[in-house]
Amino acid sequence: MKSVEQVVTLQSERTEELKVFISHRESTCGECGENLGSKAWITLAGEKGALCLACADLDHLLFLPSGNVALTRRARKHSTLAAVVLKWSRARKRYERQGLLVEAQGLEKAEEECLADSEVRARQRAREAIRREEADSKYVKEFAARAREFFPGCPTGREREIAEHACLKYSGRIGRSATAKAMDEATVRLAVIAHVRHRETKYDELLAKGRERWEARATVEEAVWRVLQKWEAKS
Ligand SMILES: [Zn+2]
């Protein structure tokens, strides 16, 4: 049967990860003999016990606190020498990872890569916004043309207003393939009816007075129908 010490040694050998501990008690470097005080950053070196980072040849590394996963992963990848920094948590009674000690040039390279990534993402977002805008303006134009087609008597400019409203409502939900369906007569007609109800009747006024929607709609139904008839006729 293996002793506890043997098991711990085997485990740390397997992980091959250099560890630096933020000490929670007074410590002295086992090599240079310097009193490191409490909360010193140390490595543990077998029989010598604690070593200061200078003696452990780790004092040229930079501390990268945990939090930025991509930066951490890249900094480790670009650092030949790296060490995990652990601190004892009194509350949780275990060592907790504080971050990573990495090489300066490794960190620099990682930062450059992350920056390049964020620039790429910003460019992608800008392109996507332009594409979206183009799709929207194309959609508004087509929708307006359809509204004009079904309602040739509609006052000038209203078809644009109706189309823009429809675009606000449907954009984001409409993919290229769904555009045709979104332009069918029933959809265009519903958009025109909603517009007429709000702009050509007392519907909004009735709602403002606290009427129920169904009641207000019934009240203005005939007025809506009259306007639609007028708009459907060629002027
Ligand atoms: Zn030392």
Put simply, the count of helices is: 8
Helix content: 40-55%
> If strands are numbered along the chain, what order do they take across the biggest sheet?
5-4-1-7-8-6
Q: Helices and strands, in N-to-C order?
A: HEEEEEEHEEHHHHHH
Listed once per kind, the bound small molecules are: zinc ion
Rg on CA atoms, Å: 35 Å
Structural class: alpha+beta
Mean pLDDT: 86
Most strands sheet: 6 strands, mixed
| Amount of beta strand | 15-25%
- How far from one another are the termini? 100 Å
Oligomer: single chain
Please give a handful of descriptors for the protein shown.
54% helix, two-stranded antiparallel ribbon, alpha+beta, elongated, single chain, six-stranded mixed sheet, binds zinc ion, 8 helices
Structural overview:
54% of the residues lie in helices and 16% in strands. The strands form two sheets. The chain has a six-stranded mixed beta sheet. The longest helix is centred in the middle third of the chain and has 47 residues, at 104-150. Helix 2 packs across helix 3 (104-150) and helix 3 (104-150) crosses helix 6 (185-200). The protein has 235 residues and is an alpha+beta fold. The structure holds zinc ion. Zinc ion is lined by residues 29, 31-32, 34, 51-52, 54-55. Zinc ion (ZN) binds at residues 29, 31-32, 34, 51-52, 54-55.
